[in-house]
């Protein structure tokens, strides 16, 4: 859970302030396109994705995929995305092993036609021969869960009021204490990187002692008690 008072990267709107609730047209932002590769690249970085999942835009890529590739291209490197599936294992392997490094943008265990252990094995094999993994499966295993934010909360990049709750009793006690000042908190499930399981929580207006939560992505307020799965330990 991260405090909105101390977390500048979160912009939280109440439902009655969102453009959709005011019947305002949502601005259409054109999707970025991949820039031309450099004629004489310093090297090659391969960005790995999987098809499908709830994290894709209309072009089939994650929202940050093309911007990441373009930023690397701007630095003089070749970089383009490639989709992994078990059926395309050999093709993806050839691309990775001809690269100086790879960037993995795959949410573990979320895609049809993808055996996670097979993909992890490929990426680990690449790291063993000196290809830079960003990030390697081992690093993702250690730091991929949201409670990693608790482990770094005392570092300069962390937030000291970040907490992790692993039982319903811990959650009920902790959320009550942290919302006592009338503020807003962001509650995240322990694993997942497609924007799912992110809730905005606050004391319900005019109902002291009752907590209301709504999905940050959908902004549809729901009773807090109906979402017990969000505090389950992954």
Your description of this structure?
By secondary structure, this protein is an alpha/beta fold. 23% of the residues lie in helices and 17% in strands. The protein has six helices and nine strands; from the N terminus they run E-E-H-E-H-E-H-E-H-H-H-E-E-E-E. The protein has helices at residues 65-74, 89-97, 116-128, 137-143, 148-151, 168-178, and strands at residues 2-3, 44-49, 78-83, 101-104, 132-134, 185-188, 198-203, 211-215, 221-223. The strands form two sheets. A five-stranded antiparallel beta sheet has the order 1-6-7-8-9, with helices on one face. The protein has a four-stranded parallel beta sheet with strand order 3-2-4-5, sandwiched between helices. The longest helix is centred in the middle third of the chain and has 13 residues, at 116-128. The radius of gyration is 21 Å and the shape is elongated. It starts with a strand and ends in an 11-residue tail after the last strand.
Key structural traits:
17% strand, 9 strands, alpha/beta, disordered C terminus, four-stranded parallel sheet, single chain, disordered N terminus, 234 residues, 6 helices
Compile the SSE list and pairings:
Blueprint: E1 2-3, E2 44-49, H1 65-74, E3 78-83, H2 89-97, E4 101-104, H3 116-128, E5 132-134, H4 137-143, H5 148-151, H6 168-178, E6 185-188, E7 198-203, E8 211-215, E9 221-223
Parallel strand pairs: 2-3, 2-4, 4-5
Antiparallel strand pairs: 1-6, 6-7, 7-8, 8-9
Helix pairs in contact: 2-3
Largest sheet: 5 strands, antiparallel
Low-pLDDT ranges: 1-16, 219-234
Strand percent estimate: 15-25%
Widest beta sheet: strand line-up: 1-6-7-8-9
Element-by-element helix/strand order: EEHEHEHEHHHEEEE
Relative helix content: 10-25%
Intertermini distance: 16 Å
Kindly report the average pLDDT value.
Answer: 78
Which descriptor suits the 3D outline?
Answer: elongated
- Helix count? 6
SSE class: alpha/beta
**DSSP strand count:** 9
Rounded to the nearest angstrom, the radius of gyration is: 21 Å
């Amino acid at each position: 859970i991260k405090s909105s008072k101390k977390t500048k990267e979160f912009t939280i709107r109440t439902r009655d302030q969102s453009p959709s609730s005011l019947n305002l047209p949502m601005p259409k932002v054109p999707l970025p396109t991949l820039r031309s590769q450099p004629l004489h690249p310093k090297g090659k970085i391969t960005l790995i994705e999987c098809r499908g999942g709830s994290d894709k835009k209309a072009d089939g890529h994650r929202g940050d995929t093309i911007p990441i590739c373009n930023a690397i291209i701007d630095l003089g490197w070749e970089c383009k995305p490639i989709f992994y599936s078990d059926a395309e294992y050999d093709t993806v392997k050839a691309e990775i092993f001809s690269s100086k490094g790879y960037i993995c943008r795959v949410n573990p265990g979320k895609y049809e036609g993808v055996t996670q252990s097979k993909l992890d094995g490929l990426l680990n094999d690449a790291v063993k021969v000196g290809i830079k993994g960003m990030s390697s499966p081992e690093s993702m295993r250690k730091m991929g869960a949201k409670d990693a934010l608790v482990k770094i909360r005392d570092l300069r990049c962390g937030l000291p009021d970040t907490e992790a709750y692993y039982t319903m009793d811990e959650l009920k006690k902790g959320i009550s204490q942290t919302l006592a000042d009338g503020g807003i908190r962001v509650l995240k499930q322990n694993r997942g990187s497609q924007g799912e399981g992110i809730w905005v929580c606050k004391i319900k207006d005019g109902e002291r002692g009752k907590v209301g939560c709504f999905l940050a992505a959908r902004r549809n307020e729901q009773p807090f008690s109906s979402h017990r799965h969000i505090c389950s330990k992954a």
